[in-house]
Amino acid sequence: MMNDMSDTFLYTTPLDPRAKPLIDELIYEYDSRYGNYFSDEGAAAELNRYPPEAFAPPVGNFVLLIRDGEAIGGGAFKFYDERTAEFKRIWTRSDLRRQGLARQVLVELEAQAARQGYSRIYLTTGFRQPEAVGLYLKYGYTALFDTKIDPEIYKTLPFEKDIRHLAPRPPADADHQPLPAVANL
Question: What is the pTM of this model?
Fold first, then answer.
């Protein structure tokens, strides 16, 4: 359920002009938390590491959460392996945090990944993002690292989640559909 009746999901691309303010804020946030810890080029280099096509169907997707015509959150996934989607760039506007928007984006991305045939999610977050760690642990993700150790040892923190339960179900009468006639030639 959305927080506001005008909240909607829009599937688009990272090049959509409505995504730019969110991505710019994400870069700023990452740079303020990590500086050049991971790269001399900062967060922009990481966000530009993948071409927009990586987040396009049939193997990926990019979604914005729109409120009153403005993007207030978003996220993406790309191909990781035949059964696994890798989530990237899950983000909500900083002035609208603590409203459950990241959870909404996460749930929508999981459902879309399942609709596109994935059965598992893989993602990483940075060690200076305890809010993200908390979100993933709260919503059923398994940490692929020891959560009792200082996270800076790992730098990036991997998680996974099985989403087979979200797979689209065939219609109830799908087993009883007549087979198409085959012409004898």
Answer: 0.84
